[in-house]
Amino acid sequence: MRKKVSFTVSDIVSFKQSLLLWSQQYYEVVWLDSNGHKSKYSSFDGMLAVDALTSIVTDTQNAFEDLRTYQSNAKDWIFGYLSYDLKNDTERLTSANIDGLNFPELYFFQPKKIIRIEGQVVTFHYLNMVADEIETDFVSINNQNDALTTELEVESNIRIKLRIFKDDYFRRVSKMLNHIHRGDIYEANFCQEFYAENTIINPLRTYQKLNSITRAPFSTFLKINDKYLLSSSPERYIKKINNKIISQPIKGTAKRSLDINEDKLLLKTLENDAKERAENIMIVDLVRNDLSKSALKGTVEVEELCKVYSFDQVHQMISTISAEVPSTANPVDIIMETFPMGSMTGAPKVSAMRIIEDLEASKRGLYSGTVGYFTPENDFDFNVVIRSILYNNTAQYVSFSVGSAITAKAIPEKEYEECLLKAKAMRQVLEN
């Protein structure tokens, strides 16, 4: 059981900063920030989970089965992540590419302490065993000062390397196009890694800088012992509210401009771009099929098709698909039946994942996986891990990956430019 105590906070921006600083004393941290983005499916402005009572970690087959048992037995909030390579648990696939990060494939924990922010109201949801710490923790959070300014800053001499160089990228995309023209697939998301070795960063400071640039609606700071995710994700993978499930894939990207008229033109051009719309619609069809595996017959609905939304760094084309599921549907099964998300794979899905594995040069791991939570009522909400920096402190290895959708009309040079646009914020943060 959890005790709930609410406080009203006048300066929520400062409180968020202090809350994140306070959280660093724990080995397990998940921070989710909507950055003020409001939609009909928003649940909170920010939520923090820290300090594991129980946890599950696995690299093995049957990961979803293990998670199903853990989630069912916990009957409580659990927070964590699923890596992209759990595709090997849902299909007969493998992952053999270079992995410099070495994150577990799956990690979830039951937090002793949850702090939720809605507007100016901050609510502490603490397990009864630590409920007497609520008042003390609230005072402690408010008394945090910016000690990070005296801590290690982001290294100014980080040397970002490319796993795939430009000519090699063109060669690999050309092979992808050959598969498409031959009819093996219609579309696939092709990704490349940027990385730095023997590198030490301050994860929280790096996250704060990234978040200040992007202010994304599914922003995440995750810490599991020595491993960190610093994410400025704009994309929701899947959410469940009562008997309704919602997925909001992104396909279609355009840069922003400081010139208002040029920015409007860039947005309008994206809205009317036949290639970008075709990419988005293909993934919408894939997501509709994925959701139909769990859905009640006739309930899968496209609520919004190819709507362009503007973020600080880019314009994005987003669609919203929903469905109704039986009240008896297991929440982990719903995720397993749709995983990995369509926007990061391709169509047909299994063939695309097999070709992706063959042509990409590094293991995706948590990149293009998902971070989120399950509630005690069997609801959930998960993002897509993109626009993210991953860091293994022990290995001193920093990584970020970007990708784009390859279709029959793809021009390798333009796809490469799109990747560089998506990499801009992460590179800017790391290279200072």
From TrEMBL:
Signal peptide: none annotated. Residues 166-422 form the Chorismate-utilising enzyme C-terminal domain. Residues 64-117 form the Anthranilate synthase component I N-terminal domain. Pfam families: Anth_synt_I_N (PF04715), Chorismate_bind (PF00425). InterPro entries: ADC_synthase (IPR005801), Anth_synth_I-like (IPR019999), Anth_synth_I_N (IPR006805), Chorismate_C (IPR015890). SUPFAM superfamilies: ADC synthase. It comes from the Bacteria. This is Anthranilate synthase component I family protein. It comes from Arenibacter arenosicollis.
